[in-house]
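Quick one: structure for this chain?
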Amino acid sequence: MIWYTAGVLAVAAERLAELAVALRNTRWSRARGGIETGRGHYPAMVALHTALLVGALAEVRLAGRPFLPLVGWTMAAVVVAAQALRWWCIRTLGHRWNTRVIVVPGLPPVTGGPYRWLRHPNYVAVAAEGLALPLVHGAWATALAFTVLNAVLMAVRIRCEDGALALATSATATTAAGVRT
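Got it. Here's what it folds into:
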């Protein structure tokens, strides 16, 4: 349980690092006319991600979930891979990566890095981590609850993000065609 707690706390620290990057990138985007959408679902997303960390630890402790080495080590590898994918996304998007949906008008869509193959690779990382982190120590109820709730939230989030990107892309195309927007 000590090692699992340390692992969950390491993920929490990583999330705090993400928030620091996001805050810096929010300032950068707003200074360039960035437009934020999807504010309504953002508190639910923060609550769900916090509940994942707390729920995983609570379930293991309160329900006495065992560490099963084959599952545990496999899921630990998935958590590490999810972190690597997430930071690849952050590095690829640079100042444009954020925990919020903020689009800077006039910037073309990013098509490099993991975005070459997936439209929303960061959300693949979130889904993988949300399933795997609790399962490292057998917290299957937390993994199930997070996965279901995250799927609902991601449907909202992806629709919001795609709409914002489509609007920004159409404005860029219109401006490039010589029509003033």
